[in-house]
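hiii, so i know i said id send this last week but things got crazy w the move. better late than never?? heres the sequnce for the chain we talked about at the cafe, plus the structure i predicted for it. fair warning i was half asleep when i ran it
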Amino acid sequence: MGLLVANLPGLVGPERGPVSEMVLQLMLGLLFVSISSTVTPASLHHVVLPTLGLVAVLVLVTRPLATWLAALGTDLPGNERGFLAWMAPHGIVAAASASTFSVGLTAAGIGGASKILPVTFLVIASTVALYGLTAVPVARRLRVTRTGTDEHHNENPH
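okay and structure toks below
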């Protein structure tokens, strides 16, 4: 599919067109459906609490630190950096790696390998829920919202 999309006229370049976006969304959807279809309630039983601890570290330490480092030397205002630290893209590489390697590692008898997909599923579900529920309030609090007519990010009390 990648070769097909890369060779379509009009899709090569820094901008992604509607077809490219559609293919990306389709691939992400298929990845997450395939992960969730392999996770059973029984496989989640012993990993819920440790995974919630992992999510807390990812959300409160790892992602803000990575965002801060990535934004060094840029002219992003502090409020926009804060919003990026909260909402920066995440998860797709871990999800793809987990789905690719977990079956082989489990088959090879590697200890703990059977927990990779359930933990990945819980991290994705937890962070999607957390960020989905908090994006608007955090954006308002940091004053990085904009109206439909604004061209630039600005401080907007609405």
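btw The longest helix spans residues 116-142. thought thatd interest u
miss u guys!!
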